[in-house]
User: What shape does this take?
Amino acid sequence: MNQIVIPAVGESVTEVTIASWMKKNGEFVDMDEPICEIESDKASMELPSPQAGILNITATEGDTVDVGAVIGSIVPGEKPAGAPEVKAATSTSPTTNQTSNTETSVASPAAMKILREKNIDPSSIKGSGKGGRITKEDALNAKVPVASKPVSDIGSLEISTPSGNREVSREKMSSLRKTIAKRLVSAKNTTAMLTTFNEVDMHAIKALRAKYKESFKEKHQIGLGFMSFFTKACCIALQEFPRVNGQIEGTEILTHNYCDVGIAVSAPKGLVVPVVRNAEKLSLADIEKSIRSLALKAREGKLKLNEMQGGTFTITNGGVFGSMLSTPIINQPQSAILGMHNIVDRPHVVDGEIKVRPIMYLALSYDHRIIDGKESVSFLKRVKELLEDPTRLLLDV
Assistant: This one.
């Protein structure tokens, strides 16, 4: 008998949550076949079977267990001749048995668990997986069907209630979501957080992108976006104002002579912040490639722990969702975060004349314990100068 043990998934991770069993108790599994999905506060991963045999489950879905804990075992053996790939659960009710077989064929175990919690019929959803199979992401995005409400009678007076969905769905918070919540509350409660604002005329950058976007893409095999300009401008400003790139550790202030810039990415399970290492040494093309690679991994749930640790500064772009202005929360233990917003044509005074220009509002949230107001305002002003005259990025002036 071979035990199924929770492996070490990172230095700071001591416990995980069993998200779902992908195989049933008593079912035959092949060696290295995925049998269980676990979630830590950083990422999720699948556990493979250590050998071929019969699965014996001792921990249930939703349990939180320590790293190194035994959650089941595999009894060695060979696959029974003619046995089906997925053994249907026995039931005294023909209707229940038929539903179980149908659900198993159209949805993954993780997706099925989510659909049951939402009380959604799997047959009402079109899956995006192979052969129309419903994936976990399909289940997360599925909406509860709208139900109509009856007319209420009060004496002789008839009052019709508005039609629409009044059901309440309930789902357990994932380990990642619980950690995000804990860290955000901690940042609000333990830092002296302030936010300073400025605006940037994006005319020069938009003109530069329009002029060179085709040749840039042809040479570097990637599009020229706004994030590379902002990352590069922040790296220059961070080196001029090192406290913005620092952090408090006990009674000491740490500053870094490098810029590991975290880029906030919205992933299916929540906000994650993968890190572009030594961004100050990268070209615009290299920054764009790094951001795209990390963003794709984030959305596919394939980010590794070391790709999300050790950032010195963070950039978040609420503008992609239409945000006009916000006050981003510091990503501890960092001391500052830059918030980008949407670009809107606004009347703007240029050389004494009112012109329509594409304007973006910027917000810098910072920890006042380590960064003074003068530093924060000067940092944001420097970023503004570099973006409004992008030739400064090339000449370093």
